[in-house]
Amino acid sequence: MSAVVKRSVTIRGHRTSYSLEKPFYDDLIAIAATRKLTLAALVAEVDATRPRDTNLSSALRLYVLEWAKRDAVS
């Protein structure tokens, strides 16, 4: 199992944090590179579209999972 690491990011001018295991973080970086986005821009996009009752860390994990599923079907 991978340890959860807390990271900080600035989204729309304010600092926030999220906690992810290394495999999720690595995949998030790869997705951002594939989409030609900065990691902060991708995190901001997920943050803007997540339900307000879902925390950012969970939303990021679900985003990575959905990306992997979509990629597996292609």
Rg computed from alpha carbons, rounded to a whole number of angstroms: 12 Å
If strands are numbered along the chain, what order do they take across the biggest sheet?
1-2
In what range is the share of β-strand residues? 15-25%
What shape does the CA trace take? globular
Number of helices: 3
Separation of the first and last Cα atoms: 28 Å
Tell me, rounded to a whole number, the average pLDDT: 93
Biggest sheet features: 2 strands, antiparallel
Low-confidence stretches: none
Task: Name the structural class.
Answer: alpha+beta
| String of helices and strands | EEHHH
Provide a quick synopsis of the model:
With 74 residues, this protein is an alpha+beta fold. The chain has three helices and two strands.
What are the main properties of this structure?
74 residues; alpha+beta; 2 strands
What does this structure look like?
The protein has 74 residues and is an alpha+beta fold. Helices cover 57% and strands 22% of the residues. It is built from three helices and two strands, in the order E-E-H-H-H. Strands 1-2 form a two-stranded antiparallel sheet. Helix 1 packs across helix 3. The longest helix has 18 residues.
How are the SSEs placed, and which strands pair?
Layout: E1 4-11, E2 14-21, H1 22-34, H2 39-49, H3 56-73
Antiparallel strand pairs: 1-2
